[in-house]
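Q: I have 946 residues here and want to know how they pack in 3D. Can you give me a structure?
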Amino acid sequence: MSPKPFNLSAILLCVFAIILGMGSSKGQHLNTLTATLDGAKKDIYIEQQFVYVNDSNDSLPNLFFNDWPQAYADKNTALAKRFAEEFKKGLHLAKSHERGSTNIISVVDDHYSGVTWERTRQKDIIKFSLNEPLAPKDSIKIFITYRVKLPPNKYTPFGYDNKNKYYLKDWYLTPAVYSDGKWSLYSNKNLEDLFTGITNTNITFNYSKSLFLASNFTEVSTTNTAFLKQTFLEGINTKSAEIIITPTKTFTKHITPTLTILTDLEAPKYDPISKGLSINKVAQFITDNLGEYPHQQLLVSNIDNQKNPLYGLNQLPSFVTPYEDQFQFEMEFLKTALNSFLRETLFFDTRKDRWVNDALVNYLMINYVETYYEDQKLLGKLSNLWGLRSFHLAKMDFNEQYSFLHMLTARKNLDQSLRTANDSLIKFNQKIANRYKAGLGLAYLSEYIGQDKVAKSISEFYENYKLKPVRPEDFVGILEGSTEKDIRWFDKEYVSSSKRIDYNISNVFKTDDSLAITLKNKGGTNVPISLFGIRKDSVVSKYWFSDIAESKTFTIPRQGEDRLVLNYDQKIPEFNQRDNWKSLNGFFSSNKKLKFQFFKDTEDPYYNQIFYVPVMGFNIYDGLTPGMRIHNKTLLERPFIFDFAPSYALKEQAMVGYGKFNFRKYYQDKNMFVANYAIGGSSFHFAENSRYTTITPSVSFGWRPDNLISNKREYLTFRYVNVFRIIDENQDINTDPDYNVLNARYINSNNGVIDFVSWFVDAQHSSDFSKVAFNLEYRKLFENNRQLNLRFFAGKFLRNRTNSDFFSFALDRPTDYLFDYNYLGRSEDSGIYSQQIIIAEGGFKSKLENPFSNDWIATTNASVNLWRWIELYGDVGFIKNKGFKERFVYDSGVRLNLVTDYFELYFPLYSNNGWEVSQPNYDEKIRFIVTLSPKTLLGLFNRKWF
């Protein structure tokens, strides 16, 4: 049912808004909407009257409005492409009725003349071509009638669910921002960063009488009509209305001495009285540190909490409760309230300049813990459990998580500057690391200039710029004006750069009464560094040193220190703290002690950590292989790694295992981002009483584009594989037991969920052969939800003096003479283990006669899905042996693509062998792919974050 256009209540409310608008902000946009939610059709009928005020010095022939519901309309919007980058296929695969959209019915101006409109190439931005250019300081009134079709909330929280709940955010047309001679036109990318003009808005919202409504706008009144419930909402100096509609009343209003808060944030195990006291406590803290909230109420919703949760242990299953109920509720409420508070009052261009909001939120959260929960540990109650309390992770304070999670991407060479646009950040940085880095920056600055100065700057900034357009330079200017110290480094080095903070003490010259200390800047970020003098674990002196471009020597008085430590309190988010200390008691006393620990831990900068963990492997020759893995891998990546796993083969009753040394060097601000140097080896059995041992030195280099969101990568690897075999005398092996292969491979890949392209060129040289190969894989998910998989392989021997097919190309099951593949039974030619297939070389699934080539081979593998994970596959190719004519080979069948590359089943149908289904022992022809490596499977889940 649609209401009559612009009823009397709406007109009166509009007049009221104009009066308020004239008093509160000259030249403010005025927006009046009448919206009716149709629960059956899941859409909203909207009649909108918008008064656009041109506060620029330019005449505007066109106006641009944000239409973010249109982002759900098809598979080619910026939102759909963003999801594809994050390996999410939901919106791409959605049916038409599962999409959102905006249907514009009419647009007229205040002279009742039609206004021409069109969608830009961005699709969720609308361009209105005015009948006359809008002069500076003038205004125009336009009337827009349209219908918004809501999507289900399975892609984002926006839309509806199957329990008759609705979440409406950025749901109506809002003006884009025009400043400095250009429009800021940003598409919806599910980043919570709509950039729109400041507006006085009044909404008449009609909805079912059985539902309940909550909003960030002020609820002026709610009345019941014959068929609908009608709520009048008002927002003065606001951006956009957020509306949450539920079948039961879930929101409670808390009137505290400083804030009126509307919230549905739950804490089932936390009693209501204590919950109310905690809300008062948080509200007082926010007001004391920021200032008075200018709106009538603050919306703190569970949806906002779920969109931007406290990442960490609180996301464990509900039966695991690492934190006290009070602490967990207050931290969740504080984070959600701070984000809402700043979103409603500080109007940044959050697509480009979000870091200030992030800095304020996370700095205040750090302060809150330091003020009220100084002894809170990161693991909470778990830190006292036997088996965990000895870990360095259990000793970490709660606030140390900020530096730890920021370093998670920094150590992977994936860190990005705080000035990086929001839509150019990889997901982990956008959600976690950059937010934490911003908060750490203010905490670092407060240590350097004084917490009182930073606190005063925050209050002054908020008071001066709330409800106004604001830029980061405004905040930085207030910070710089608060101190006599030179803090230009904060914006220039810390905020605007992704270079690392990394210092060490390169030399100490001692005299009877002084110490001459040389500090080296290893990271290239010229920022202040703190130095502590320690005597028997007590701080006896502290200094700040700055302006260290490369290295610099400072002299300090000697005060009985037995150790000097940089960044001892870890207030500075430093890249590497393992080399931050220097003993003053001689060389041997400076050596770090060894610390043996179970499993894995966070990095303890004052110990050389060695970890051990039981492991279990399997192949049919060794049987189960229990062993002990010994390594130095911490939870944060580090440059030098050793990893050994000596094991005992129960079936062969012999020692087996693997080991490697690896040094990884990352390069910043270069397309070649990594170099890797390694030497590794392994020793297992490849047949009964037959063992292989490999020793392989290697070097590899990696390239990536400047846009880290891109999945494109290039790698060049050189390795020298040395194989030594002990062969049982009963084995029919007609190749030399020992051999060496020099291998070079270039890989170029762009791994996407919609388009996947990966190819490599491989060259191998040994004393008996030289060969080259080319491999191409392509996957395409079409708009009709049909997926095509193509693979092409070609290989050619340049020379071949071998006497067997051990080094030959293979159609369906390579011999794996370089021992790269995880075969469960690599020497089997019958039985279930022979049915394991690894798609390599020819990539065939049927077992054909004479499957090897000692000259050249060229094959194509293809598959297309019939329904979900059920596919048809077909393989064709040519295979050529020396002295024989090339053969045409083919096969076909059904593929169950349960998890691509990880778990697949192949059922052959027709091939050179004929109809295979009708042949005896068909079950032996079925092939399978299985991946048992936890690390490999984990890549399926973390790829969307990094």
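Q: Anything worth noting?
A: The chain has 15 helices and 49 strands. The longest helix spans residues 427-449.
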